[in-house]
Amino acid sequence: MITLHYFAGLRELTGTSQEQADLAGKTVEELMEWAADKYPGIERASARVAINEEYALPADVLEDGDAAAFIPPVSGG
Amino acid sequence: MITLHYFAGLRELTGTSQEQADLAGKTVEELMEWAADKYPGIERASARVAINEEYALPADVLEDGDAAAFIPPVSGG
Amino acid sequence: MKAFEVVTEPINPQIYADFVLRPEAGAVTLFTGHVREWTKGVRTLYLAYEAYVPMAEKKLAQIGREIEEKWPGAQAAIAHRIGELQISDIAVVIAVSSPHRKAAYEANEYAIERIKEIVPIWKKEIWEDGEEWIGDQKKKPEGGNQ
Amino acid sequence: MKAFEVVTEPINPQIYADFVLRPEAGAVTLFTGHVREWTKGVRTLYLAYEAYVPMAEKKLAQIGREIEEKWPGAQAAIAHRIGELQISDIAVVIAVSSPHRKAAYEANEYAIERIKEIVPIWKKEIWEDGEEWIGDQKKKPEGGNQ
């Protein structure tokens, strides 16, 4: 299983801050497609994906136990 | 009378931090010549002169009661 | 305190300046970013910050390492506060020490730029008539806050 | 405290940062210049600063006015300590607040440059084997301290 994290506007869009999904073996790109199906609009949020707290590339593959986070454009400072 | 102030290395060169001199009517340039006569070496200190706490020009004229200060290159900060 | 941290309580900036001070440091720069009342003619009531805390602290530490590489001898400490912040509250503090002042200024400004690029922290502005998560500030004319 | 002052006691930098903070300020930069132990391979034991105090305070205030003119909305406070200072002691503090951060960084760095040009304050370095009044630092290669 993969743990998914949603923040800020994406947390409000999805209505959850965290969930589990059976996405091991999928790429980050496939994770994005899965999310866009489940949460229409998320694909327009310019979000990056982090795996285990590090920014990931579209071709990176999720492994069982990974934490994947949708990172909308940051606005700290 | 004019009150003269000496700071830092110039205070050590002249041996005094302050003195009175009858220099009213003299220019800053003439003050410098007077000081160089009295304290040989002061002319090589790259000092600026301030009159009443403001930097002065060589042609500025001292008036009775003025405070004139020899300002060697500053090194604050 | 940690040298790179996300906190929920009010920030005391001095402890970060003290943290980076060393006998070889001739200069310390301390930047504090504050909640500003007015932004582009709109009055902010308060802000709410949210973070992906463990990743944010890793990214702040990464910025610290980048600074040590780019400005040898420089050392940084950074904290960002999350939760509800009122006008004038400190949202972020950046302390940089360095033997010479030029590096202390440059590295400090570099840190705030990098925070706005890579650290997963989000700001929601709450106004009298609404609220909005702020994002992608760099694409807006005039930049974001501060 | 005064916004522009020469002091003889240890400097608490936070009071100058607090002084310039206002609801419209999104950024505060605080620079502290510290006595550094090593300068160009020579170990400093301590420093002694001397000032032409009334003129120095006038010149610090002039720098504050220059900043308000060059960076509208920016506000500064500056203090310089004189007397004997030990390693790591604060010699100078510059606080600048501004709606946006760029001006706060630029104006702060401008202030320290101007202090080194026009403010009648002098530093004597005391080493293990001698002492010397430092002057005309800008003409030396590598600049002066910090």
Could you explain how this protein is built, in words?
The complex is a heterotetramer, with two copies of chain A (77 residues) and two copies of chain C (146 residues). Chain A is built from two helices and five strands; from the N terminus they run βαβαβββ. With 77 residues, chain A is α+β, with helices and mostly antiparallel strands. Chain A has a single domain (2-71), classed as Beta-grasp domain (Ubiquitin-like (UB roll)), CATH 3.10.20. A five-stranded mixed sheet of chain A has the order 2-1-5-3-4. In chain A, a hairpin with a 2-residue loop joins strand 3 (48-51) and strand 4 (54-55). The mean pLDDT of chain A is 97. Chain C is an alpha+beta fold. In chain C, strands 3, 4, 6, 8 and 9 form a five-stranded antiparallel sheet that branches. A four-stranded mixed sheet of chain C has the order 1-5-7-2, with helices on both faces. In chain C, strand 3 (38-39) and strand 4 (42-51) form a beta hairpin. In chain C, helix 2 (53-70) runs antiparallel to helix 3. At the C-D interface, strand 2 and helix 3 of C face helix 1, strand 2 and helix 3 of D.
Task: Give the secondary structure arrangement, pairings included.
The complex is a heterotetramer, with two copies of chain A (77 residues) and two copies of chain C (146 residues).
Chain A: E1 2-6, H1 8-14, E2 18-21, H2 28-38, E3 48-51, E4 54-55, E5 67-71
Parallel strand pairs in A: 1-5
Antiparallel strand pairs in A: 1-2, 3-4, 3-5
Chain C: E1 4-7, H1 14-20, E2 27-34, E3 38-39, E4 42-51, H2 53-70, E5 75-81, E6 83-86, E7 90-98, H3 101-118, E8 121-127, E9 130-134
Parallel strand pairs in C: 1-5
Antiparallel strand pairs in C: 2-7, 3-4, 4-6, 4-8, 5-7, 8-9
Helix pairs in contact in C: 2-3
Q: Mean pLDDT of chain C, nearest integer? A: 92
Quickly count the domains of chain A.
Answer: 1
Distance between the termini of chain A: 34 Å
Tertiary shape of chain A = globular
Radius of gyration of chain C: 15 Å
The fourth-level CATH homologous superfamily of chain A is Beta-grasp domain
Read across the widest sheet of chain A, the strand sequence of neighbours is 2-1-5-3-4
| Count of runs of 4 or more consecutive helical residues of chain A | 2
Average predicted confidence as pLDDT of chain A? 97
**Gyration radius of chain A, in Å:** 11 Å
The structure class of chain A reads alpha+beta
Name of the top-level CATH class of chain A = Alpha Beta
Helix-strand pattern of chain C, N to C?
A: EHEEEHEEEHEE
Oligomer: heterotetramer
